[in-house]
# Entry
Amino acid sequence: MIESNVSAGQAGASGGVRRLTLLLTATSAVTAANVYLSQPLMGAAAASLRAGPGALAAVPTATQAGYAAGILLIAPAGDSHGRRRLILGLCAGSAVALAGCALAPSLGWLVVTGFAVGLLSPVPQLVTPLAVALAGDGRAGAAAGRIVGTVQGGLLTGVLASRAYSGSLAELAGWRTVFGCSCLLTLLLALVLRRALPSVPAAAGATSYRDTLRSLPRLFLAYPPVRRVTVAGALVGIAFGAFWTTLTFLLEQRYGIGPTGTGLFGLVAAASALLSPAAGRLADRVGRRGASAALTGLVVAGWLVLLPGGTRFWWLAAGVVVLDVGVWGGQAVSQTVLFTLDPRIHNRLNTLYFTFRFLGIALGSLVGSLAWAAGGWPAVVGAGTAAAAAGLVVGVLPARDGGPPAPVSGSGRH
# Structure
């Protein structure tokens, strides 16, 4: 197929940017949902494969590990390869991996194919900078916040909807049908993207994939805004991970709510998906650093609201909404900040941000568990508040934001 050579400027002039943004938002939703499909299916899959439910926990773990590896190893390729072809290839590969899950004859097979699903699913980390590129020069940033917030809203919708869709369909037609239907949906998405997505080649002077990977540490060390945004994102990730890990303990021990109720409780986070585009628009209107500080401050406030949630359910529910709006809105603003930098490195900036974010969430799970064991819910609130406050301090630190980044390619070619 001959790719359409529609440039970013032509796409904007033709009025197709909005349609493409909505398509990329749907792409983010579908591909993000694939990562979380397996979580509600483990009981049914365990009975079918004659494996213990505990053993089946290896499947979502493998999928998450694959997703983290894909973000680190594949997402940076968006700076060195044509993004259209890369996105189409990942969608096709994901469909094959999902088909493998549907046909899995054993636990080992399901773990391997689950890892492959995660590895081939960092599409949201590619389509967000692509959406900004299609809108024009990312450094101009006039609408970057709105676009990032919209695409991220698709990601959150996919994450939230995947659990409900997966569990409901599994009850009606079996767990294998869930993977089969997701395979077909991903293939359909790939066909739509093949027809509608314009060609956006790698930036002029792009380096090789190997040099792109090698440049990640230098990019982090050489440019203060990148360090500030990624480290602040990791600290907020610690606060976020600490909450969602210990929430299960609190709901079970204090309120007598089991796993099903805990999963449904997470639906209150839907407010964050609806407000994510608003956070991006806030960044466009009042300034990115101010919006970031306000939203990280909302995370701190959320933890303070959560403190009486240890004994009062409605305080807990309110705190979840405040916390999640701050976390996900702050993530949209952080990406907007990064996408005002050199467009040649947008995918690497996204890789750095999400790598630190995932590390922070993983560390937060450990911190939250240790705090719970040491002092119960008040200790968890103290740890989460401290991490969020540290993220707020780092996020507002003065930095030399002006000027282009230092060369970051391995070979020095630009």
Notes: The chain has 17 helices and no strands.
